[in-house]
Amino acid sequence: MTAEANAASSDPAASHPVVFKAGCPECRGQFELAAGALRLAIGASDKTTFYSFTCPRCGSAVRKRAGERIVELLTGGGVRTLRLHSTA
Fold it and tell me: Residue 35: which of 11, 9, 3 has the closest Cα?
């Protein structure tokens, strides 16, 4: 997944939304999603940190692991974030 700003990052007044390139493992579709189409869940480890979205082509629920860089890109791009807590 990559993030692309539609405006220069040095322009804080830019009103263009950030879009994220994503792919569906079911239909193999490639597309761009706005921040509102993605959800990020941050768990206690890399195995429990993931992002999810619904494929705009086939409607499949997609969930993929998110490493540090992906978390940075998604949070910086305004993706809604849920912090998961362990019940140990």
Answer: 3
The CA distance from 50 to 65, in Å, is: 4
pLDDT digits over 11-52, tens only? 443 567 799 999 999 999 999 999 999 999 999 988 899 999
pTM score of the predicted model: 0.76
Single out the residue of 9, 85, 6, 23 nearest to residue 58, CA to CA. 23
Give every CB contact of residue 16 below 8 A, 6+ residues apart in sequence: 5, 6, 7
Question: What's the residue count for the chain?
Answer: 88
